[in-house]
């Protein structure tokens, strides 16, 4: 049923998308395309861009009417480019609107939509409400053809709001009709019927307005006819008065003639008794008196007639005006009453709808507030959880990295301990067992027994040295008896160098110390002295005998976390490509011509790492070696403690 009712409204869409070419004349005849192009070129050369674009638009419109779309588009686009050179936004908007309609004729709705949106943008910028409404309706028609009904409804509702704001009943009726059609296409029958009823109401209202206009025009014509009839009667009355005045004047002339006849008789008598002069004077005096009397009578009569005529005319005009006012008042009251009835019905409907929407909005608002509160609480919980989780992951990752590093170090140490256990401990023990097996228990005075006991004592001393070395290593890794101190590096270097004063003097060594006096690190004093002692003693022990020893200790600043010193010499050096991965291993020696156990560098590296530091080495054979020691600036800031660092 609703679909049948909407059939009568389907004219709205095609009517909106239409353009009319103005009937432009040239030399009294309809202008041709060629004439338009020639005039456009001439005006462009003269600098009159607006006129040039007007002729181009006319040429495009003529092509459009002939359904020659390609040249029509070409001339419209050329006109847009010319308008852009003079900043004529309104002209561009009008042409864009035409192009939107043209592309709609071609059913190229996407392009049509683009041009209509451009038009709408300009109309919005210029705040042209009628233009905005027109552009919104055009866009909705195109969107309906693209089956984008929800977007179409949005534009139509905006158009309806503007039309309502302007109290433009015609535009409101069009918007209601388009909304009814769009909701019907979208499948929302209830909304479609609602807007169709509104459209029908406004349509009937407009029809009544037209009927009232016809009645008003008829009443005005009737009053005009009555006024003309009154004027005609007034003229007839004037003519009648003039005819009557004429008759009265003729009667007076007759009376004067009779009077003059009587006067002739008296004159004859006077002539008999008086002189001619006296007679003439009397006649003149009498005539003047008669004329004066007649004039007074005529004036009084005319004044009376004029007064009566004015009263009649005034009464007639007043009656006509009162009649007109009564008719106008009746029509206005009737119109106001009808409008009030419609407005009351609309207000009642809108009030009910607003009340319903308000209740829904309030309910939705409460739901949204509760959801928002829940979401905020969950977000806060998630943020807090994420922060804690990130911190936990970071802490756990750091712990795993530290644990992994610690495990690797422990594995290395275990390998070293296994080596020591297998080689350094078992060797002396095996030799002691062998010597004990050759002892002559029957003859204590046997010389073999003395030799065996001497060798057992030597092997026992070697075993004791190995055990002492192992205890020293374990002391470094597990001891918690030492405490961190703020050590001045320059003071500790000078203190250790005092132990080698005699050796350096005998060797005539060149000593260079370039460490700032205020360089301070947190370290265990015994470890610091041990590290410096081992490196300086190695530089002296493994010097090149063919040249003077050059020993240099210099400080360098690595970064904000570390302070580094370099201990360099020009000694024998090492082949790091060959021995680099074994340099800091336990009991590893690379220069066998000097006494040693291979323990010093291992202890140095263990002590540095136990304190969170690091040691690096650079060396070239027969050129020298540089050890780079990096100490943490403030080990407490890095969450190190002596008990933690010294546990492996």
Give me some keywords for this one.
Serine Threonine Protein Phosphatase 5, Tetratricopeptide repeat; Heat Shock Protein 90; 3 domains; two-stranded antiparallel ribbon; 9 strands; 8% strand; disordered N terminus; disordered C terminus
**Low-pLDDT segments:** 1-22, 270-274, 636-648
Strand count = 9
CATH homology superfamily of the largest domain: Tetratricopeptide repeat domain
What count of domains describes the coordinates? 3
The CATH topology of the largest domain turns out to be Serine Threonine Protein Phosphatase 5, Tetratricopeptide repeat
Overall form: rod-shaped
Supply the CATH class of the largest domain: Mainly Alpha
Give a structural overview:
This protein is an alpha+beta fold. It has helices spanning 2-6, 12-16, 33-46, 49-65, 69-86, 89-105, 109-126, 129-145, 149-166, 169-186, 189-273, 276-437, 447-478, 489-497, 501-507, 525-541, 576-579, 600-610, 642-645, and strands at residues 25-26, 29-30, 485-488, 510-514, 520-523, 550-557, 562-569, 614-620, 624-632. The strands form three sheets. It has a five-stranded mixed beta sheet with strand order 4-6-7-9-8, covered by helices on one side. Strands 1-2 form a two-stranded antiparallel sheet. A hairpin with a 3-residue loop joins strand 8 and strand 9 (624-632).
